[in-house]
Amino acid sequence: MGIQLEHVSYTYDARSPLRQTALRDVELDLAEGALTGIAGSSGSGKSTLLQLLNGILLPTEGSVKVLDVRLNAGEKLPKLAPLRKRVGLVFQFPEQQLFARTLEEDLVFGPLNFGASPEEAAASARKALEAMGLEESLLGRHPLQLSGGQRRKAAIASVLAMEPDILVLDEPGATLDQVSRTELIRLLHRLCKEEGKTVIIVTHRLDELLPYADRWIIMHDGRPVFQGAARGLVDTAAKLPDYGLSVPLSIRCWHELETAYGLQAEEPCLSPAALAERAMQLMEADARKELNLCVKSC
Amino acid sequence: MNRVKTRPPNGRSAVGNQVNFTAAGGKEHVAARMAEQTDMVLLDNVSFAYDGQHEDIKNVCLAIGRGEWVTLAGANGCGKSTLIRLMNGLLRARCGCISIGGVRLESGTVGVIRQKVGMVFQNPDNQFIGATVEEDMAFGLEGMCLGAEEIGSRITRYAMRLGISGLLHRHPQELSGGQKQRAALAAILAMEPELIILDEASSMLDEKARGEMLELLREMHREERYTLLSITHDAEEIAASQRVLVMDRGRLTADLAPRELFRNGDLLRLCRMELPFRLQLAQELEKRGIPPVPEGDPAGTAAYPVTEVMRKWAFNWSM
Fold first, then answer.
1. Residues of B in contact with A255 (CB under 8 A)
2. Is there a contact between B21 and B61 (Cβ–Cβ < 8 Å)?
């Protein structure tokens, strides 16, 4: 089923002189059970796109289909609670979604709201807290008394606690320390691969997500200008600067290796370890070839 | 004036680069500088507890010279944002002494000090006041009692510098996250404060905008009129600064040059930092017996000869 956007446009303040179109005639298909990365410069429509996925924003034109729910522009809304139970959205700023008196209340709010018993909700909350590496001693704190990074982890945990089928995260790694960012990406990757969750992540740091993402969407000026796997992104990387993005270092290194060894259409290795391993294999194969040539000519 | 080159390596212990800021030497040094009153930031034995009991900031002594560019690093929740909020009186220290630009922070001097300190927060929504970006920029300038012409000229100048000229008539809430952060920074820069404190101000920016902001910081540093203190997890931003302060559980635990931090595995772990991509790749290659090609020496050294095979992809690992 997945997620399909058909001719979707979204305009803020559509009926006022301040109208501003954030998405233009978007056609998108997001596969279920995949980890999709979305990138694009500031103002390209990424956050607007995400908010269409659980009905926080409704399309001003076109149709959004998420799982078995269809949201058509201008039509009466279906009940959104079942959709919101299945699609968990982590906002760009954690302050926008933390509202309870304590972190614990915030974490159990979602599960309770969707019908879990207090015991089940507490268990989900603790599991999410642990997954995000937050200490239990923070449970009694007011969410806004947490540090910026802890607050962001808390916001992510509050969505994880609801155990949605589709996890949608807007810049989840911003303001986290680097190790926490890597841990978060690995956690989301694991949830996707082991528990079959659909994960959609907006990121400004392509390098970090490239080794994990199954698919990429590049947004520019309210439209997806690229949709596809990492291989396709590697092939079209030269265009990224036109979309206000710089070419990720891992792609630049892979290009260097491709040129040096004349590789063609090979699945790219984009983590430092994978890149080094592939380079090593190529060097060894070259050395063997030279040795064979040497033996033959002798 | 840029005093950086003449600064003594204040407070550093003889053992490596780790610093015990509570050591008597460090304290005396800060006390002596308190008397001088020439530094931009002076903290003497500052402690703070949100709940009044458990200290979140513990006995911090720190001196930052005028014109310096300092980054503040550390794991999430170690007290970085708390520390900087003490510097302009947003939080009040439980004990210790804080002095900014030669003025001691007291209840009567908070106003003067806030004119000297421009702060850009993690979440730009926390600092928008105006109904448009232009009004928001004008708000601070009107508060400084500047003339209309000067206000107009500063808004134009700094909006252009931050690439938000086209957004001046928009409501801050209509902007994307990255645009908001640039608008917040523009409003602060327009006030031309002496000390600019950035609390992960580039965290929401895309890579290109982050690069542009780094260039802006470099430019500002070259102008020598700003002291820059930036909280960041960004390896490149740390590398571009002159000095890194490392915090751990409310204490300052190291004060060193960025390149020293990147060579210190223990400190990197403490800050929960990872090496920049190129250095990670270089490490992975070295693990597999492929040494980096030494700069300016394509043939390698006797210890690490570069073979023909390796030279096919002479990965340049320098940053």
1. none
2. yes
Which domains can be identified in chain A, with CATH numbers?
3-14+21-248 (3.40.50.300), 249-298 (no CATH)
- The closest of B167, B128, B178 to A44, measured between CA atoms, is B178
Residue burial A275-287, b: 16+ Cβ < 10 Å; e: rest = bbbbbbebbeebe
How many angstroms separate the CA of residue B184 from the nearest CA in chain A?
15
Indicate yes or no: CB of A18 within 8 angstroms of CB of B174: yes
Contact in structure between B157 and B189 (CB atoms under 8 Å): no
Q: Tell me whether B287 touches chain A (CB under 8 Å).
A: yes
> How would residue B165 be classed by pLDDT, with cut points 50, 70 and 90?
very high
Q: ipTM value of the model?
A: 0.80
CB B307 within 8 A of CB B269: no
B185 in helix, strand or coil? helix
Same-domain check for residues B257 and B156: yes
Angle at B54 between CA B50 and CA B58, to 5 degrees: 90
**B132 interfacial to chain A (CB closer than 8 Å):** no
Beta-carbon separation of A283 and B210 below 8 A = no
Rounded to 10°, the helix A103-113/A118-131 angle is 120
Show the beta-strand stretches assigned E in A112-175: 166-170
Best of A23, A96, A141, A147 to disrupt the B interface by mutation (most B CBs within 10 Å)?
A: A147
Q: Which of A134, A147, A139, A150 is nearest to B85 (CA)?
A: A147
pLDDT higher than threshold 70 for residue B298: no
Listed as ranges, residues in chain A with pLDDT below 50 are none
Among chain B residues, CA nearest to A244: B208
Residues B155 and B234 in one domain: yes
**Candidate from A181, A207, A276 with C-beta closest to B284:** A276
- Asked if residue B172 and residue B83 are part of one domain, the reply reads yes
**Structural contact between residues B278 and B270, judged by C-beta atoms closer than 8 angstroms:** no
Which residue in A93, A177, A275 is closest to B75 by CB distance? A177
Residues B156 and B259 in one domain: yes
**Pick from A47, A37, A76, A36: which is nearest to A203 by CA?**
A37
**Among B196, B222, B217, B234, which residue's Cα sits nearest to residue B101?**
B196
- Cα–Cα distances in angstroms (integers) from residue A209 to residues A135, A187, A205, A230, B207, in the given order: 26, 12, 7, 10, 13
* CB distance B237 to B230 below 8 Å: yes
Please tell me the total count of domains within chain B. Answer: 2
> Of B137 and A2, which is predicted with more confidence?
B137
| pLDDT grade for B31, boundaries at 50, 70 and 90 | low
User: Best mutation site among B84, B125, B233, B287 for testing chain A: the one with the most A CBs within 10 Å?
Assistant: B233
Q: For residue B122, give the nearest of A42, A145, A148 by CB distance.
A: A148
Indicate which CATH number applies to the domain containing B214: 3.40.50.300
Residues written for chain B: 319
- Contact list in A for residue B177 (CB cut-off 8 A) is 42, 47, 92-93, 171
Contact residues on chain B for A282, CB-CB shorter than 8 A = 312-313
**Structural domain range at position B315:** 276-319
Asked if residue B185 and residue B56 are part of one domain, the reply reads: yes
Q: How far is B127 from chain A (nearest CA, A)?
A: 14
The verdict on B243 and B159 lying in the same domain is yes
Answer yes or no: do B69 and B168 share one domain. yes
